[in-house]
Structure formats: C-alpha cells, structure tokens
Design goal:
Oligomer: homodimer
Helix content of chain A: 10-25%
Shape of chain A: globular
Distance between the termini of chain A: 14 Å
Order of helices and strands of chain A: HEEEEEEEHEHEHEHEHEHEHEHE
Largest sheet of chain A: 7 strands, mixed
Chain lengths: 351, 351
C-alpha cells in the first residue's frame, strides 16, 4: 500500500457545502465536486490518509449549516462555505503517520464526505476492533448515535421497571435503541414516527409495546391520551417544539425528560415557543439535556455491552443506506422530512 | 379557655373568594365579610379551633383563583367561589380535640383568611416549638417558603463553591433565603428585583454580591451580560417567561435551573412561549421543578438548621407586614406587581 499510494494523486469526489442555509436544507445547498487528492501525509503531522466507507446523516449537522458562532459545542460550529461536509463516519486507513493506527485498520470518527480524507489530527478517532458486524454499524448503533441512546437512557432517564416511556422519532438512529434499552429495563415503551411503515417497524422488529404515527390526524393530544392512558414517566426527546409542549401536559408526577435532540426545530428561523413549562413545577419534572460528546470515555464500555447483544440478536438496528456520494445530499435532506426508515447512512464504498 | 369558648359564637371577619379570576387579581375579587363562627368542634372530629395570627401571601395561590381541574397538586386545586381564602399561616390553638395539640399551642400550616378557623383535619399542621423568634417567621423563613429555599437550593441546584448563582425575585420570601444559602456555600450570588429599594436591600442587608433592577431599561439581555460576564452556573427560577428565555442564553455548560416558581406567568391567559430550550442540549443543562410539599418530612431538620442561624444573626429575613384582614386583599394583589419589599405577610392579630 505504502508504495502504491505514496505521492500519488487520487480522484476524489467530494460533497461540498455551498453556503449558509435558512429553513430546510435542499439538495442544491450541496455541490458534488470531482477533484484530486494527494495521499501524502504532511511531514511532522501524525495524520492518517483514509478511504471513507460509510457516513452518517446526523440531525445535529443542520446546525453547522447556519451562520452562527457557537462556542460551547465543537459539533455545532458553522461549516465554511466551499468546504467539504464533515461528519461521523467509518473509514479504512490507507496511510498512517500515527503509531496508534496501521494501514488496513478500520476507524470511526469525524471524517469528510468524500472518497478519501486526510485526517491531520486523529485524536478523536476510534480504531474498530470487531469486524464481524456490518462496518456501517460504527456510524450508528456502535458509534455516536448508539452511545447517545445508551448514555441518555441510562444516565438521564432514571428509568425503572414498569415505567411508561415515550420515545419520539423512535425509528431513528437513537430512538430505536432507546426503545430497546427501555424494554430491557422492563419499561412499557411507546414510540412515535412519521409514517405507518415506521410504526409497523417499531412494533414488529424493534420490540416497542406500542407505536403511533404522530402525523396521522391533527389531534396529537388525543393520540397521547389514547397511547398513554396512565401518563408518561419518561420522555426521550428527539423532536422538540409543539410535540414537547403537548407531552409536558401528559407527563406524570416526578417524570423525566431526556433531551437528546429537537429535529423539528433545526430548520426554523425562530424556534417554537414552549408554553407548558409550569408543568415542571406542578409535576416536579426534571428535564435534562445531554451530549454523548461528554461520554466518549464510555465508548469501550458501551461497545462491549452492545456487540454482545448484537451477536445474540438481542439488539437490532435498522439502517437506511443510500449508495454513493451522488446520493448523499438527498439522503441528508430527507432526514428532516422523515424520509429515512431507520438510521440514514451513506455508503461511499464497501471497502 | 374551654369553659370560656365552648358553644360560644364569635364574631369572625373573613376574606372571601368571590369568583374565578382572569388576568391579574384585583381587590374586588375578594370580599371582606363579617360573620359569626361557633368554636364548637364537631363530635368525633379530631379538629382544632384556632385564632389566626399571621397569613402568608404566597404566589402559588393565584392558581387556586382560576377555574381548572388540577389533580396533581392539592395546593393548586381551585378555590370555591364564596368560600374563605385558604393559605399557609400561623395560628394559636383555642380549642383542641386532638391529642397532638393543646390549647395555647402555636401552630403553622393551612388555615383560613379569617379571625378564627375550625380546622377539622390538623394532619398537615406543625406545632411551633420555638417562640423566641417572631411568630410571623413560621409563615416565611421557618415555614414553607424557607423550606422551599432550603430544598430547592440544596437538592436541585447542585451548587458548589465558586459557582455563579442568579436568583430572580430575589427579595421575595424564597429568593432572599436562596441568596443567603448560596453565599454560605461560597457561591457568587446575584439577585434581581423590581425596584431600586429592593436592589439596595439585597446588597446591603441580604448579603448578595451583586443585584440589579430588571425593570430598569428594556435591555434585560444587556443586564445579564453586565452582571454575569462569566455566565450563570445556577439559576434559581422564581419568575419564568421572557426572563427564563433570556437566562437560558446566558447559562454556562452543565448549568442547573431550579424551577421554584414562575410568578410572571400566573396572571396570563396563555403563558409566554420559551424559545431557547435548545440550550438544554447545547449546554447540557438540567432544569428541574420541585415543591417543598414533597419534603415536609424535612421540616424538623430545616427548622433546627435555620433557627440556630437566625439566633446568631447569620440568616436574616425581611418581611412586609400588612396589618389587619382589611388589608389582606390589597397585600395579596400587590405581590403580583412587586409592591412588597420582602415576604408579604398579613397580620391578623399579634396573639
């Protein structure tokens, strides 16, 4: 490999961020560019040259497409117009100037939406240890979405056996895992999703006790009443906005709301106003945001936990795989319209 | 006493709730009624006949003046039009049919806004043990407001030395104590209030490091920037609404918001919409409502803690005492306009 690639220029397809977005992202906000990339790693760098295999379409990425100055969370810092999209993905090491990685290793972490990436600082990358599962899993169930579900459910929800758990965006990468973790804990789990197909998936494949299409009819309050006749003890929040506002009214005393995402809000100029926060007092609710970024040290623990369950078929994961960088933009845009069934992944190459 | 009062009818001034209120309560929503009350305790009741001394004007009471069905919190159940106002107060036992209380005991707990009350179920009442402090304190610093500050600060804020703490409605019955508890913990404490007089009180009497008049000028965001150049670690929430929305933007990573009250919202038909909840995720905030009602078992612990500090002048309490049931309505109405300086109390009688 070393000899084969060193100093070589390789054709490199890239998905480039065109300019700051307002409202929903459109395919035209991305440009597919053909260029060449040198596989030379700069001297004195401890970088890697990798071939990208799978890229995750993660809802948070929309924040990076707005012009703003976020100082609190690196993952929310705006993309530079004209630069390649960066996100969580799975790649294969082609060349390494880093003692922790070797040619041929598979890694996951932040990489570019392109055929090949030069990663100058591989500090945040993880080497993939188990390859007896689909490699794409490291952009989903075994990557950050999996960790988010694990951390969010275990550290924030304080769920106990018998609790009634509501998961929104339940067929998504995080939601489908939260539902399964909650079932393992002995909870009664209800999920909502945006199509009947996903609702069926939740009930037939993912082990949810109940599920509903929140877009069916206009009476979301009525749906909550029907599906939660005894109220909600734990709400795992992926949606935000008016859904959150209504859920607050259906929470039980001492309920907990783990705030993982608010996908309904990311494309709005001004977020929806939430009017029912007095429920926090009247019902003594705890509402807590979290980020799996704070728990990267838990990756090994989570990995051992999850890989075992996956091998035993006790934990399943539904992916929606778009093939080729040509389809990256439409796949990404689709997640904000609920077009994906399961975790949206872009397959750049299989190896 | 027994002989003196048994079967006797006594003249009894009462503050009666006229009808459900929309918007701000007005003095005309109350009626001062002169009636007679029998000091006879019904047979088989374990009740008390008490003389009311001090009544607390507590912001939550506004909820009871609206027509609604609250099932979660007894204290939020609507008053019946035509019935006497019920609230937390201090009283003296005139007659007792209960083994736990004797004639002459002082008690605090739920009582009526009237000269005398027949309390059929004294289960929730506390006998007053220490009378070397003003008895009115049991409607404030040594009663539920004190417990709210203690529980809210200690159990919800997770404050540590050096934390930057913001207390809104800081000159109120709860806020002034939270500020002092936070100082004892070694925090940097800033309070806001609605007049310069109260701001001075916070700085000169109540030991706040800094304080500001949030009604001065229209630039609340600018005020937060000036008074919290390093952001806010802990927000003790008494106000809600647009204040909360702005505070969210000024919270630091891993900040905590203890939600004790939302006085700005109680008179609105539709509460303000809070738009900045995404900060819960981006800053990993915890926002938690609580009620001192859940911690009544902590009353003895809190009492021993506070009484000692009061005796040593290490904990002070500012009261705003209105004299006479004639002034009850205006005192109560005043708290929603910030007219009280310190905890608003109604003195019915001194003994």
């Amino acid at each position: 490999m070393e000899g084969e690639h060193s100093n070589m220029m390789l054709p490199n397809k890239q998905v480039v961020f065109k300019n700051y977005v307002e409202g929903y992202p459109k395919e035209s906000d991305f440009e597919l560019r053909s260029s060449m990339i040198s596989c030379q790693i700069p001297q004195r760098s401890k970088g890697l040259f990798v071939k990208n295999l799978y890229l995750g379409c993660d809802p948070y990425m929309r924040h990076r497409m707005s012009a703003h100055k976020s100082k609190d969370v690196a993952l929310l810092v705006s993309f530079q117009p004209g630069s390649v999209i960066i996100g969580l993905g799975v790649a294969k090491v082609i060349k390494s100037a880093n003692a922790d990685f070797e040619e041929g290793d598979y890694i996951w972490g932040m990489t570019g939406w392109e055929d090949y990436s030069l990663i100058l600082n591989p500090d945040g990358l993880f080497k993939i240890k188990y390859t007896d599962v689909p490699l794409s899993y490291y952009a989903g169930i075994l990557g950050m979405p999996g960790l988010a579900a694990y951390i969010g459910f275990n550290n924030v929800c304080s769920a106990k056996q018998g609790d009634i758990v509501y998961v929104s965006s339940a067929a998504g990468g995080v939601g489908q895992l939260v539902g399964q973790f909650a079932k393992m804990k002995g909870c009664y789990v209800v999920g909502s999703a945006s199509t009947d197909e996903k609702v069926n998936l939740l009930k037939s494949e993912l082990g949810f006790d109940d599920a509903f299409n929140y877009k069916e009819g206009s009476d979301f309050a009525g749906a909550l009443k029907r599906h939660f006749p005894k109220g909600i003890d734990v709400y795992f929040e992926n949606v935000g906005g008016s859904m959150l506002d209504e859920v607050l009214l259906h929470m039980n005393l001492y309920g907990r709301i783990a705030v993982s995402g608010m996908i309904s809000q990311y494309n709005l100029k001004k977020p929806d106003g939430i009017c029912n926060l007095f429920c926090l007092i009247s019902k003594r609710l705890r509402m807590e945001g979290f980020s799996e970024l704070d728990s990267r040290h838990k990756v090994p623990e989570y990995l051992e936990f999850a890989i075992q369950l996956i091998r035993e078929n006790k934990l399943v994961f539904v992916e929606d795989i778009a093939e080729g960088l040509e389809n990256a933009a439409s796949a990404f845009v689709g997640i904000y319209h609920g077009r994906n069934v399961g975790k949206q992944i872009i397959q750049v190459s299989t190896d």
